[in-house]
Specification:
Number of helices: 7
Shape: elongated
Radius of gyration: 17 Å
Structural class: mainly alpha
CATH topology of the largest domain: 434 Repressor (Amino-terminal Domain)
Distance between the termini: 53 Å
């Protein structure tokens, strides 16, 4: 049971780091105090199951993603290795950096001025 709790805690830390989102914003989205999120991150308390949908919505992920149970999909055969690499890099970016990348790509494609 402790390994599940630790996995959830580590997933939460990773999501906060990858997205660049703030603990305060997560607390507000979940209807809890900032100290509750700090306790989740430190492992001092567990996340109430009722909070998980709000957490997933906040990070724009599925419950399976949150629990680290997402199935790895087979790559689409018509994508090149470079395209697959770009997709992987994109998925690792924060939302802010994703938006910036889309703007830059639009400029290179002549779709944004």
């Amino acid at each position: 049971m402790d390994s599940v709790k630790e996995g959830i805690r580590l997933n939460l830390i990773e999501l906060l780091e990858k997205t660049g989102k703030k603990r305060t914003d997560l607390a507000n989205a979940c209807g809890v105090g900032k100290s509750a999120v700090s306790n989740w991150v430190s492992g001092d308390s567990s996340i109430d199951v009722e909070r998980i949908p709000a957490i997933c919505e906040f990070f724009e992920i599925t419950v399976d993603d949150f629990f680290g149970r997402s199935q790895q999909l087979e790559p689409t055969p018509d994508l090149t290795d470079n395209e697959l690499e770009l997709i992987g890099l994109y998925r690792d970016m924060s939302e802010k950096n994703r938006s910036l990348l889309i703007e830059i790509a639009g400029v290179f494609c002549g779709k944004v001025s």
